[in-house]
Structure formats: C-alpha cells, structure tokens
C-alpha cells in the first residue's frame, strides 16, 4: 500500500469563529468518511485525521510554536489576507491570534496590512 497514513490539519475549536469544520465532531466524522470512501482504507489501511492543536488556546499554540522555533512571520491565520499574504488585522482570526501572542508575552511577528 502506498500513500500517507495520516492527514494533519491545524484546525482549532477553541476559537473557531463559527467555522463548524474546525470542531472535533467534524474531524471525527471526516475521518470516518475517509475510511469508508478511500480504496486504501477499504482494503485495510485506514487513514487517521490528526488535529494536534484542536483543543489548545491561542496562547498555548503560540507558546508551543515558540518552543519549537516556529517563525510566525511565515504563517497566517487571517481569512482576508492580501495577495502578499499580509493579514487584515481585523477579522476574528487576526484578533484571536494577536490576543494569543499578547497573553503568551511573545512578540507578534505577523505581517499585517497597512
């Protein structure tokens, strides 16, 4: 059998801004679907959906990323980022992200518009 055994996603249910596909229930249902609709799963090699930050607060995510050496300037949470990848600074995702950095006491290196 070839292919991946798992799909990793960065969804977060703690402050999901009303996106129901970021909830644990959706991830569980998606994994079940993947395992009834893919050939590899039907033939005995199931796929797991891994969402390691799904229940973490933004503060916890920022702290863990900092511990791992993540360059947050290369990441974006914004749903309204511009063509250059700069965050809008106004949507829920931007506000939650900024608050996470503030609570963690770690400088926010996010590239914001204007």
Summarize the structure.
The protein contains 4 helices and 2 strands, in the order βααβαα.
3D structure, described in words:
The chain is mainly alpha-helical and 114 residues long. The chain has 2 domains: 1-55, no CATH class; 57-114, no CATH class. It has 4 helices and 2 strands. The chain has helices at 24-37, 39-42, 58-68, 92-104; strands at residues 6-8, 48-50. Strands 1-2 form a two-stranded parallel sheet. The longest helix has 14 residues, at 24-37. It is elongated and about 50 Å long.
Secondary-structure element string: EHHEHH
Radius of gyration: 17 Å
Instruction: List low-confidence stretches.
Output: none
Name the average pLDDT: 91
How many H/I helices?
Answer: 4
Shape: elongated
Q: Classify the helix fraction into a percent range.
A: 25-40%
Secondary-structure-derived class:
mainly alpha
Strand order of the largest sheet: 1-2
Q: How far apart lie the N and C ends?
A: 49 Å
Number of domains: 2
- The percentage of residues in β strands lies in 5-15%
């Amino acid at each position: 059998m070839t292919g991946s055994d798992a799909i990793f996603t960065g969804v977060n249910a703690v402050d999901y801004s009303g996106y129901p596909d970021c909830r644990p229930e959706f991830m569980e249902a998606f994994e079940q679907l993947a395992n009834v609709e893919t050939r590899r799963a039907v033939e005995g090699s199931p796929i797991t959906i891994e969402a390691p930050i799904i229940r973490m607060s933004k503060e916890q995510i920022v702290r863990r990323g900092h511990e791992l050496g993540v360059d947050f300037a290369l990441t974006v949470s914004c749903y309204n980022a511009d063509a250059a990848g700069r965050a809008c600074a106004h949507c829920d995702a931007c506000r939650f992200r900024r608050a996470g950095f503030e609570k963690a006491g770690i400088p926010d290196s996010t590239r914001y518009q204007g």
